[in-house]
Design brief:
The complex is a heterodimer of chains A (481) and B (220). Chain A is an alpha/beta fold and 481 residues long. Chain A has a domain of 57 residues. Chain A is built from 23 helices and 12 strands. In chain A, β5 and β6 form a beta hairpin. In chain A, α4 crosses α13, α17 crosses α19 and α20 packs across α21. In chain A, 50% of the residues are buried. Chain B is built from 6 helices and 12 strands. Chain B is an alpha/beta fold and 220 residues long. In chain B, the strands form 3 sheets. Chain B has a 6-stranded parallel beta sheet with strand order 1-12-7-4-2-3, sandwiched between helices. Chain B has 2 domains: 32 residues, no CATH class; 169 residues, NagB/RpiA/CoA transferase-like (Rossmann fold). The longest helix of chain B has 16 residues. Chain B is globular. In chain B, β5 and β6 form a beta hairpin. The chains are: A alpha/beta (481), B alpha/beta (220). The interface between A and B is large, with 99 and 76 residues. β9 of chain A pairs antiparallel with β9 of chain B, so a sheet runs across the interface.
């Protein structure tokens, strides 16, 4: 498999990055299969929940409310968590977060660290940084082990290795765990991972986790998982470091009654994920006795400052949008050039990059709205996509040399024509006359010059009819009189 | 000032500048919070029996084993399950009722056992705080009879005693039963599982691979 770049600063634009995927039938089959399974289960469980829309309304309102009062809730979380024996740290960007975590690990004299799957740590590229600093980093989620041992990149935020099939997993495990007789039975592969990690869980005294929710009222942290690797990392080590985006906070413990009813159903099509853990600071005799939370900004406050785009931060990372997305289903996650793929990635990534990179992503959508419909916190992704598209277009327009670009020239002319009825009718007349040159006897246009060719390269265009709707309507009115 | 303290001020200032009109303090936010829409179902409509049947059905869908019994029969039911498990070396939280510790088995009581000592045992018996029927969830708040978190994590076999009076229909009903938010929580919905390889659900990854629930009819 060719190298996949998930750093938005270096990734190819979507239309180029997608080509290797489109030429890889195995990959597309793996992705489509996984998505079909999740979607079928999700559909059944969402239908069964008669108050689904009411839950969505409440979840959306709670998340919006949090963002509007983010400062107050973060300070409350910090106060409560600290009072319960936790230590809260703040990191303005990825570099600060990495340095902070490394510093904490050095204080622990750690040479090894176990990790629960956390997309936020992938966002700040924590693993390569810690490895370069000489630490051994062990991912413990089954999918993350597959990726780490296979030197592969995640393609989904909930099921990161959904693009890898069982025989590929077998090959990776057999090679990296030295198990020559391993079969490709998922049960046996899972068992191999259990044995591979057991000793690490029992002996490595330092763990890193992400957070699904931070509870302001209590200072508690919630982690949602399936395998129990999370519980291992949250319970057995002496020291736990949790990395969380500043937007992850919820006002009250009670809000879990909304979020947890939505999250697992949206994410994996389960009524509830097998394990959810909540802990509050440090508890004597139970779990890690040193607990740090690193609150990460890394571009989030900049998203917060733009009212139309702010809703991006409502996201609870369930991945329902990518599972519902017709584009993602065809392309998988790697084409998005970011650890956050799919519709949410298409809006989150360019914004986290302050619109300096990943500008092709807002265009990687058909604007069908399936993501909005699926989103449990009602993020209007198409609305944000359109907003970002207009920003990208404005960026492009300002670049020199683009003024006479046929596309922009055409759009400026169209802008003028659509503004004036007289000009519009004149253009229709001229267009009919002009296009007649290219219309074949069968009534179709098979070839057009210049930018028009971009259309006719891949599909035919119906010739303009002799009469416009407007003309037909006017004639009809005359007849009926 | 440390980098973290500087960044704290930087981030909070940026948040403050980002929100217009200016954000409220916590008391002001509480007023808005109280007005948030909550039209979802907070109270289930099932009868007591239907609720229990739903709990049992959900647990079985997760491949958990469910046995029903009465308070009088409970110690015998526990002993029968321990025997049926084929295991002999069990662990119990310090607050577990002594009459649940069946004879003929080797018991280790947790008064601050080490991880290695817990790892040596084959199974664990605990109580629970609550059961949520809608999702088949067992709620542990890690009280003295529910045990520290590690107790229900390392042993491969977990026998959980759930009283029928503890079963609620929906998650909001569980929230209503809380005198105050708990400090430590584990929600267990079936044994540890993964679907990471081709979305094939595999039971048993790192947590206990076997979950047995004894439902005690304490309301009859």
């Amino acid at each position: 498999m060719s190298h996949v770049e998930l750093d938005p600063r270096f990734a190819s634009p979507f239309p180029q990055a997608v080509l290797p995927v489109l030429r890889n039938p195995q990959l597309r089959k793996n992705v489509a299969h996984a998505i079909d399974v999740i979607q079928t289960k999700r559909g059944r469980l969402v239908t069964e929940k008669t108050d689904w829309q009411e839950l969505r309304n409440s979840a959306a309102a709670i998340r919006s409310h949090v963002l509007e009062n983010l400062g107050a809730y973060l300070e409350e979380f910090e106060y409560r968590c600290t009072a319960a024996g936790g230590q809260v740290h703040w990191a303005a960007d990825a570099d600060e977060a990495r340095q902070l975590i490394l510093e904490l690990l050095r204080q622990e004299k750690a040479s090894e660290v176990i990790k629960i799957k956390t997309m936020t740590s992938a966002e700040i590229q924590l693993n390569p940084f810690l490895q370069a600093a000489g630490l051994d980093v062990f991912e413990t989620d089954l999918a993350e082990i597959i990726l780490q041992l296979g030197d592969l990149e995640p393609s989904h935020i909930v099921v990161p290795a959904l693009h890898v099939n069982r025989s590929q997993v077998r090959e990776i495990f057999a090679r990296r765990m030295g198990l020559k007789d391993l079969s490709d039975d998922p049960k046996e592969l899972t068992n191999a991972a259990r044995h591979y990690l057991r000793q690490k869980f029992l002996t490595i005294p330092t763990a890193i986790s992400g957070a699904n929710f931070l509870i302001a009222e209590t200072g508690s942290v919630a982690v949602v998982e399936s395998e129990g690797n999370g519980r291992m990392c949250l319970t057995l080590p002496r020291t736990l470091i949790t990395l969380a985006g500043i937007e992850k906070v919820l006002p009250r413990f009670q809000d879990l009654e909304v979020m947890l009813q939505l999250l697992a159903r949206s994410a994996t099509g389960e009524r509830m994920n097998p394990y959810t853990s909540l802990w509050t600071g440090v508890t004597a005799g139970d779990g890690p006795q040193r607990f740090h939370v690193v609150l990460l900004d890394n571009g989030r406050t900049s998203i917060l400052s733009k009212p139309k785009q702010r809703q991006t931060l409502k996201c609870i990372r369930c991945a329902a949008c990518m599972n519902a997305c017709p584009v993602y289903r065809q392309t998988g996650g790697h084409a998005y050039g970011s650890v956050y793929p799919g519709p949410i990635g298409a809006i989150l990534t360019p914004q986290l990059m302050q619109m300096h990179y990943a500008q092709s992503l807002p265009f990687a959508s058909s604007l069908c709205g399936a993501c909005y419909e699926a989103c449990p916190v009602k993020i209007n992704i198409p609305e944000v996509l359109l907003e970002l598209r207009s920003q990208v277009v404005n960026q492009e327009r300002k670049q020199t040399g683009r003024f006479l670009d046929p596309l922009y020239l055409g759009l400026r002319v169209a802008n003028l024509l659509f503004a004036w009825a007289l000009l519009f009718h004149a253009a229709q007349w001229a267009g009919r006359l002009g296009l007649r040159l290219f219309t074949r006897k069968d009534g179709w246009i098979h070839w057009l010059p210049s930018v028009g060719g971009k259309w006719t390269q891949t599909r035919d265009l119906r010739g303009l009819p002799a009469q416009s709707f407007h003309q037909w309507w006017a004639a009809r009115a005359k007849e009926t009189k | 000032m440390s980098t973290s303290a500087l960044s704290r001020q930087f981030i909070l200032d940026r948040i403050c500048a980002a929100i217009l009109p200016p954000a409220k303090d916590l008391a002001g936010a509480a007023v808005d919070y109280a007005a948030l829409p909550r039209e979802y179902i907070r109270r289930g409509s099932l009868s007591r029996e239907e609720k229990l049947q739903l709990m049992i059905k959900r647990l079985r869908e997760y491949d958990a084993e469910v046995i029903e019994t009465t308070p009088q029969e409970l110690p015998a039911a526990i002993a029968a399950q321990l025997k049926a498990s084929g295991r002999s070396n069990f662990i119990a939280p310090a607050g577990l009722p002594v009459e649940w510790l069946a004879d003929d088995f080797h018991w280790t009581i947790d008064h601050g056992l080490s991880t290695d000592e817990i790892e040596q045992t084959e199974g664990v018996v605990t109580a629970a705080f609550c059961g949520v029927a809608d999702s088949g969830t067992i709620v542990l708040h890690h009280s003295a009879e529910e045990g520290r978190r590690v107790l229900t994590l390392l042993p491969d076999w977990h026998l959980c005693i759930l009283r029928s009076s503890q079963v609620v229909q929906s998650f909001p009903e569980y929230i209503d039963r809380l005198p105050q938010p708990p400090r430590l929580v584990t929600y267990i919905s079936g044994p540890s599982a993964t679907a990471d390889i081709e979305m094939t659900r595999i039971k048993g990854v790192h947590g206990p691979r076997f979950l047995v629930v004894i439902l005690v009819r304490d309301e009859d």
